[in-house]
UniProtKB/TrEMBL annotation:
The purine nucleoside phosphorylases catalyze the phosphorolytic breakdown of the N-glycosidic bond in the beta-(deoxy)ribonucleoside molecules, with the formation of the corresponding free purine bases and pentose-1-phosphate. GO terms for cellular component: cytoplasm. It comes from Mastacembelus armatus. Signal peptide: none annotated. One of its GO terms (biological process) is purine ribonucleoside salvage. Gene3D superfamilies: Nucleoside phosphorylase domain. GO terms for molecular function: purine-nucleoside phosphorylase activity. This is Purine nucleoside phosphorylase. Phosphate binds at S32, H63, R83, F84, H85, A115, S219. The keyword Transferase applies. It catalyses: inosine + phosphate = alpha-D-ribose 1-phosphate + hypoxanthine; 2'-deoxyinosine + phosphate = 2-deoxy-alpha-D-ribose 1-phosphate + hypoxanthine; 2'-deoxyguanosine + phosphate = 2-deoxy-alpha-D-ribose 1-phosphate + guanine; guanosine + phosphate = alpha-D-ribose 1-phosphate + guanine.
Length: 289
């Protein structure tokens, strides 16, 4: 990130603050086919990405491209309907631009959802995986969103990542899922990010399993890194939309349609979950937010 980029972030945040009365403490990033999460908000104000100054625009199928401000009960939230992926050709700085905007809007907690393929043999399609840790594979290859000039207004040069996924939020999520009767679908594991857009080869899947990953996808990690850098509390969850192919004799092939079909089936459960979860966050954390 070159010096000056962050002033654009401020311009974007100020532009939004002038156009909505909502002052969100919680931001939600919706994954593939999960844009319906924005529907849980009342009193909505939508901003198409293309209208927001200096904001990137979304190109992936299943990603609508709107920033939605609104209320959940009395709680003010903002939701990214459609996110930016590295495989679309955006730099890691562009991918994570909205997270810094959220920070300047006053957001304290970031909720990230994605669609992921299961590497762990005990996972089933339709399961939810609470992310307890990640493997930043693009980071291994020098693609970390925090590379370059460090702006101290956002955070320190060498941020800690061993505590990236807030344990209290995960505990609240487990409780929420249990109350909703979803606990048998609930897993907790390690998410590995690959850049995509290709799905993994069989040999690559074996590597990732050996490294301790439970699920694999093409998003989330950059946003989480930047959110933790600026001190946001993070909760992230994968919807398991496919089981990765691990057998050379298998006729299964990973495809984007399968991802979208599974998310469509589970959207309602997920929406209810997010609604209950956010209410719980506000009830439990509000004093400290
Ligand atoms: C797969 O997930 C289960 C349940 O979450 C966990 O107990 C197990 O350790 C995982 N297996 C591997 C190989 O990581």
């Amino acid at each position: 990130m070159f010096p000056g980029d962050n002033d654009y972030i401020k311009l974007t945040a100020d532009w939004l603050l002038e156009r909505t009365k909502i002052r969100p403490k919680v931001a939600i990033i919706c994954g593939s086919g999960l844009g319906g999460l924005a529907e849980v908000l009342d009193d909505k104000t939508d901003f198409p990405y293309s209208d927001i100054p200096h904001f990137p625009t979304s190109t992936a199928p299943g990603h609508a491209g709107q920033l939605v401000f609104g209320r959940l009960e009395d709680h003010e939230c903002v939701c990214m309907k459609g996110r930016f992926h590295f495989y679309e050709g955006y730099s890691m700085h562009k991918v994570t631009y909205p997270v810094r905007v959220f920070f300047l809007l006053g957001v304290k907690t970031l909720i990230v959802t994605n669609a992921a393929g299961a590497l762990n043999g005990s996972y089933k399609v339709g399961d939810f995986m609470l992310i307890k840790d990640h493997i930043n594979m693009p980071g291994f290859a020098g693609q970390n969103p925090l590379c370059g000039h460090n702006d101290e207004r956002f955070g320190v040069r060498f941020p800690c990542m061993s505590d990236a996924y807030d344990p209290d939020l995960r505990a609240l999520a487990k409780q929420t899922a249990k109350e909703q009767g979803l606990d048998r679908f609930l897993k907790q594991g390690v998410y590995c990010m690959l850049s995509g857009p290709t799905f993994e080869t069989i040999a690559e899947c074996k590597v990732l399993q050996t490294l301790g990953a439970d699920a694999v996808g093409m998003s989330t990690v950059p946003e989480v890194v930047v959110a933790r850098h600026c001190g946001l509390r993070v909760f992230a969850m994968s919807l398991i939309t496919n089981i990765v192919v691990r057998d050379y004799d298998s006729n299964e092939k990973a495809n984007h349609e399968e991802v979208l079909e599974t998310t469509a089936l589970r959207t309602e459960d997920l929406q209810t979950f997010i609604r209950n979860f956010i209410t719980k966050i506000y009830d439990n954390y509000w004093v400290s937010l």
